[in-house]
Write a structure and sequence with these properties.
With 155 residues, this protein is an alpha+beta fold. 26% of the residues lie in helices and 25% in strands. The chain contains four helices and five strands; from the N terminus they run H-E-E-E-E-H-H-E-H.
Length: 155
């Protein structure tokens, strides 16, 4: 595996914050009426994980460290497969297989009115990241929604 280039990843995370037309990052089965979404926060945490390598027969060979990248993307709503598509593109940029500029150009301006057909289709975008290792860690609801839920019957 190629090492990830942190400055390129940070540039992508900086670029993705804000309101964009994510037409190029949604899957074909997406039923959302609008591809416009707002990323309110995008960051990465990096931590080292010690790894003890052993040769055949269980003899200690070496100690090493793997880097764990934890990406945080916050939004009031996401499109179907938006995150795996974003991460697939960002990983290609981080490995030097694509450019920050091409990532930035895939973020379409969120214009009012009907959605404009994007200049390219999802077919021409980098492959989605595999879902292994991607986790939804938290869902936060606005306080008013929680208050309404307390007074509503679920059954």
């Amino acid at each position: 595996a190629l090492p990830l280039q942190l400055p390129k990843l940070l540039a992508c995370l900086d670029a993705i914050q804000g309101t964009w037309d994510f037409s190029l990052f949604r899957a074909a089965g997406c039923t959302a009426p609008s591809p416009v979404r707002t990323i309110t926060h995008a960051s990465v945490d990096i931590s080292d994980i010690p790894v003890h390598l052993t040769a055949e027969g269980g003899v200690p060979r070496a100690d090493a460290a793997l880097q764990l990248y934890t990406f945080h993307l916050h939004s009031p709503a996401f499109l179907y497969r938006q995150i795996v598509n974003i991460m697939g593109f960002m990983l290609r940029v981080g490995m030097g297989m694509d450019t920050v500029t091409s990532f930035q150009q895939s973020l379409l301006p969120a214009l009012p009115g009907p959605t404009i057909q994007p200049p390219q289709s999802r077919r021409h975008m980098p492959a989605a990241a595999p879902a292994q290792g991607l986790y939804l860690t938290q869902v936060t609801y606005p306080p008013a929604m929680l208050e309404d839920a307390e007074h509503a019957s679920l059954w």
